[in-house]
């Protein structure tokens, strides 16, 4: 596979070399776009790798969305495959070589791999669709994703064994970043009120901050939509809703949420992302059993890396 990298950066002087140095010679093309660094990130790219970063400005009226900038980066790549990587992410050289050596089947348009986030001395296991065919686009004003376009085009993405992207967010930046995310999510919702993915993220933030009623309000909108465009976000919302209701002692509500989630999972079981979601159905089955036995204290949502 011939793969080009698209990376969007801002003030990544401390991390950019570590992200690129192990794989850059395996890439067929590299496009980096800087959105306003003040720490010399473009100079480091030029000095260390000979990369001339492009420049872009994020616009408040568009909720400082990155998706358009990413898509401009994709358009500059002439490789058939794209690797989307952030500066706080790493992929081991030997694992990336395994990606390059994949024999294309003509049917798969993208690959999910493990995405493990190191945060607060713990590892949060998840997955990410970071490798996909050129021609696909990112969508959404925040937490943009390529999965939407894969579904819209009726395409397929598969799981890639033995490949892991490790994610090292800067914990010191999280308080200010969290507030900015909330503002951007609210801005995005005003612009796209039926983009149910935003409700999931707002609800999960409220849950993390111990605001259960706000969390229930947003998560319920996502869950009850049963959106075929965002099936995993709907099911994630059900998981967290079930825990909240259980923690409040609302067994009937928790049971209703879990039963609804199981039925919806059955209806979307053939969705490419639902298929590779290794935690989802086992959690629902176990939580439903706990709920039926009245063991509400055992219903705990697994962590998400947001």
Short description:
This protein has helices spanning 16-20, 41-49, 67-76, 93-100, 147-152, 174-191, 196-208, 212-225, 231-247, 251-267, 272-276, 280-292, and strands at 3-9, 29-34, 54-55, 81-84, 89-91, 110-119, 122-133, 157-167. The protein has 306 residues and is an alpha/beta fold.
Can you describe what's shown?
With 306 residues, the protein is an alpha/beta fold. It folds into two domains: 3-169, Spore Coat Polysaccharide Biosynthesis Protein SpsA, Chain A (Alpha-Beta Complex), CATH 3.90.550.10; 194-298, Serine Threonine Protein Phosphatase 5, Tetratricopeptide repeat, CATH 1.25.40. It is 44% helix and 18% strand. It has twelve helices and eight strands. The protein has helices spanning 16-20, 41-49, 67-76, 93-100, 147-152, 174-191, 196-208, 212-225, 231-247, 251-267, 272-276, 280-292; strands at residues 3-9, 29-34, 54-55, 81-84, 89-91, 110-119, 122-133, 157-167. An eight-stranded mixed sheet has the order 3-2-1-4-7-6-8-5. Helix 6 (174-191) packs antiparallel against helix 7, helix 7 runs antiparallel to helix 8 and helix 7 (196-208) packs parallel to helix 9. The longest helix has 18 residues, at 174-191. The mean pLDDT is 96.
Q: Can you lay out the helices and strands and say which pair or pack?
A:
Elements: E1 3-9, H1 16-20, E2 29-34, H2 41-49, E3 54-55, H3 67-76, E4 81-84, E5 89-91, H4 93-100, E6 110-119, E7 122-133, H5 147-152, E8 157-167, H6 174-191, H7 196-208, H8 212-225, H9 231-247, H10 251-267, H11 272-276, H12 280-292
Parallel strand pairs: 1-2, 1-4, 2-3, 6-8
Antiparallel strand pairs: 4-7, 5-8, 6-7
